[in-house]
Amino acid sequence: MLRRGLTRLLGGDERRVDSRTIYVGHRSSSTNEAFIPPKFCDNRIVSSKYTVWNFLPKNLFEQFRRIANFYFLIIFLVQVIVDTPTSPVTSGLPLFFVITVTAIKQGYEDWLRHKADNEVNKYPVTVLEDGRRIRKESEKIKVGDVVEVEEDKTFPCDLILLQSSRGDDTCFVTTASLDGESNHKTHYTVPDTEKDLESLNATIECEQPQPDLYKFVGRMHIYKTNQEPAVRSLGPENLLLKGATLKNTQKICGVAVYTGMETKMALNYQGKSQKRSAVEKSINAFLLVYLCILVSKALVCTTLKYVWQGKPGQDEPWYNEKTQREKDTNLYLKMFTDFLSFMVLFNFIIPVSMYVTVEMQKFLGSFFITWDKDFFDPEIKEGALVNTSDLNEELGQVEYVFTDKTGTLTQNNMEFIECCIDGFQYKYQDESSELDGLCVPDGPVSKLQQKAGREREELFLRALCLCHTVQVKESSEQGQGQGDGLTNQVDGLGVDGEVLHPAHEQRGFIASSPDEVALVKGAMRYGFTFLGLESKTMKILNRNKDIEMYELLHVLNFDPVRRRMSVIVRSKSGETLLFCKGADSSIFPRVKQEEVERIRMHVERNATEGYRTLCVAYKYLSEEEYAQADAGLREARLALQDREQKLMSVYNQVETGMSLIGATAVEDRLQEEAAETMEALQGAGMNVWVLTGDKMETAKSTCYACRLFQRSTELLELTVRTLEDGGRRREERLHELLLDYHKKAVQDAPPVKAGVTRRWSSANQDYGFIIDGATLSMVLNSSSESNASRYKNLFLQICQNCTAVLCCRMAPLQKAQIVKMVKNSKGCPITLSIGDGANDVSMILEAHVGIGIKGKEGRQAVRNSDYAIPKLKHLKKLLLAHGHLYYVRIAHLVQYFFYKNLCFILPQFLYQFFCGYSQQPLYDAAYLTMYNICFTSMPILAYSLLEQHICIEVLLDNATLYRDIAKNAMLRWGLFLYWTLLGVFHGLLFFFGVRFLFSNPALQDNGQVFGNWSYGTIVFTVLVFTVTLKLALDTRHWTWINHFVIWGSLAFYVFFSFFWGGIIWPFLKQQRLYFVFANMLSSVSAWLVIILLILVSLLPEILLVVFRKPRGPNARQMQHRLPSSGTSTIFMLSQTASSHSFSWSD
């Protein structure tokens, strides 16, 4: 019955039908029954992909899933099995090289993951067994073990806190590696547990593992002899999560409830899958087209061969009689082997060397990011880091940017700016510790030198000193803490110009939120110092250096629905006071309305300046009021069912009829150039979404400060608070709000021109969308499947029509879910995630491109990212300059490779019509092998590494240029068709131009005729020169390297041809090119044809470049598009306008 009740309690969002029972210390609750421990998973963490045994088969399987690798494997096998015109080495060697290099790279990456796993799994921990402290490896912890953890150590698994070294039965933890928050959070021991854990006999019944970091429901049964078992409720405040770190507490003991891959941290970890760029997908699509061309060529030639041989006398001429074996061969088998032979002969249309060149381009190109001096940060003395070079070009295709807030957009460094008391503004600019530093009222000028009454000032400062959950860290501990790099979490209490009591001089503050520390330090500036909390007594040092003491009766904790927190305290004189601070929208309705107007103007002005504002109110409680509130709070806290709702109703009852004293303004410092970076990204047509685990108010003010939300932006809010406003069921209200927002943002919005974001057309209303984690789980996991997909579609359409989206209170896995949802939406947009903490790892792994920031939150994000940069501001150059150029370079490389191979193999195909379809090669075997490897590979590699069609300064100044290449613009089918037709035109021209020359066969002075190898060599010479000069025409940015490889490749071809044909090579059975090249160049006709054909091939291109006038929005920037560097005549021609490869952008 208890289990059934608990199952009902645990239902809802998790849809769990089962719970787990854990025996603390593996001790049975009943002495009569035999104890059979339940089986749970061990505490090992596995993030690696391969093992020693499965590496080879698994890696080969993954590699041969690539269409090109599989194709070349088949061709290689055909060459080995069938008698083909070319050697198996021509395809086998490049394939072996590509497979080996990739396997070594992936094997090394996985070895690093194994190493990291071992570090975690072999970490020594202390387990209490039968009263003894035993050291074990972390992976050997079992569910039910009692584990001891010391200060500054991380928790090895998810623990329920049983005992703490602190006198008040609490402990402090930081969860930076889980949710990115570096502030201290307070956790509580289970009440009434034995001090001696050896004699504790208890069981825990709790929910099955689930990934939500902020949810945990369970109960603990404590068995004592001759007594009824005591039942204590367990919540998230009792649960210490794996990966969190113990702070300001010497040691704790806890019982393991979730271990290994069942911990909340592991459930939030997204496995690392191999990412593939959009360019690679385009290559595969183009490859299929060329495969179809290849197969159709082979089919045409095979068919025509047998048609031709069907004519009398053609099949077996007198000079070439068939052998007996040929006569006995099955006709269909012979046709099939002929088909395969043609496939091998035309196989060079599929460029295997392109994959090698692309791999080299990506690998070498990634060094330019690492070497970029603009990415060097003098503070951490590090630059950018490239973990995955496969995605360089993807940086130029990003459509959605998902960013973390804390530590990414902001520095997580709060500073008290000013306050307002009774409508008078107090701005601290003086070294004096008195409140009369500077007073500038928001009201009329006549009030300029006025101030609020001293009594009100002191009441306001007392409220700041009492209404919080800040703890004071003692000086002895602080020194030790700072030695461990804890200076970010602990703020020193040095006060400008004020000499404090020596005992309190070197203290530090610990708080669950950095703005609480900022407010306490703000009060210190004006003479009120919080000295700490000792056994429920809060101490304050006031202006007169007197110590005031208050008994802390209750803390009404902050929550995102109420958006305020309160404390109830009792002064020495016996007065009971309630102090409350919170967001203006939650405080104003609960105070006297005549007090609101004085403060409202101040709050609104601060909000427009991007500060985080809080209002402060108070109330005197009579004895009866306090007794009623006390009873209500105690009863609600013991409830197992609907605990939160019961507490909420008591809170709301107490926090009414308050008096407003004033407001505060705190600044969460933005990262350097954060606003400019966000503006540039939006200008480039990217949608920016902020995904944070932080509170909504904080995140909202950051979005305003980053200019993601403007003052004119209408915010559409879909949070727990807005769902509860309607007074109906949440599901109904959710449906109603989604439809309402969809009508506003999607249906009623005027259509937007392609490539223009709403931000740039001021006539339209801008919308910003805000959602929290709880509402998002309702949208994604609705009770009915049909509703879930409908909600998801509505939600996506609304978000896509908003200028910016803010998702707050997100669990790490929810961040990844959002990225996945957008990634898989219509059009499959390219996504980028950027974050600095371990809580961002899931979304970094999920997005097409993951970027880690080398921040203060550890290095998990950096280790799991594709690229790492020191600061957010570096993202602008990474995308707008590097990304843009990488994409243009590789897109040109891919199109050029297909074009030059089509030029290469089309004459070979046409030649079959003139040689009886006998599979006679047109080119010598050396030319076939060397064409892609030596003669034409280096110029395109240099181009793909060094080309700058627009100089970097212009790319950074004009973010809109990024839109020109959006949505894979340079690898669309139209451009692919253009390059293919260009290849066909050049191939036809080469073949038939040389054939026209050969119409008079006597081309030499002595009347001798040229043979078929001379014919092929002339075609090949025209081909090599044309495709190389075509690339020279496309080059805009000339360096000495470009000159060296372009003219060097042509010189090498001429030198090689003389060398290859000028010597008798002993290892060759037949030497087809002996003196052919030298003999060919002795003919003036051959020279004339070669020069004429090269000029005719490139003439349309040159004319297009010379006569085409620039047009379109970027025409004026034409003269700026080119970097200053050495130019050639060809380059000067190309300067006048975009050549065809870039003409689409104008």
Automatic annotation (TrEMBL):
Which residues are listed as membrane-spanning?
Answer: 64-82, 285-308, 339-358, 926-946, 975-998, 1013-1032, 1044-1065, 1085-1107
Can you state which reaction this protein catalyses?
a 1,2-diacyl-sn-glycero-3-phospho-L-serine(out) + ATP + H2O = a 1,2-diacyl-sn-glycero-3-phospho-L-serine(in) + ADP + phosphate + H(+); ATP + H2O + phospholipidSide 1 = ADP + phosphate + phospholipidSide 2; a 1,2-diacyl-sn-glycero-3-phosphoethanolamine(out) + ATP + H2O = a 1,2-diacyl-sn-glycero-3-phosphoethanolamine(in) + ADP + phosphate + H(+)
What cofactor is this protein dependent on? Mg(2+)
Q: Where is the active site?
A: 404
Q: Which named protein is this?
A: Phospholipid-transporting ATPase
> Which NCBIfam families does UniProt cross-reference here?
ATPase-Plipid, ATPase_P-type
* UniProt keyword annotation of ATP-binding present: yes
UniProt topology in membrane: Multi-pass membrane protein
Q: Which domain of life is it from?
A: Eukaryota
Keyword tags: ATP-binding, Cell membrane, Endoplasmic reticulum, Endosome, Lipid transport, Magnesium, Membrane, Metal-binding, Nucleotide-binding, Phosphoprotein, Translocase, Transmembrane, Transmembrane helix, Transport
Q: Spell out the PROSITE patterns in the cross-references.
A: ATPASE_E1_E2 (PS00154)
Q: Write down the EC number.
A: 7.6.2.1
Listed binding positions for ATP are 404-406, 516, 558, 581, 612, 692-694, 809, 815, 839-840
Q: Which InterPro entries match?
A: ATPase_P-typ_cyto_dom_N, ATPase_P-typ_P_site, ATPase_P-typ_TM_dom_sf, ATPase_P-typ_transduc_dom_A_sf, ATPase_P-type_domA, HAD-like_sf, HAD_sf, P-type_ATPase_IV
What does the entry list under GO cellular component?
early endosome; endoplasmic reticulum membrane; plasma membrane; recycling endosome
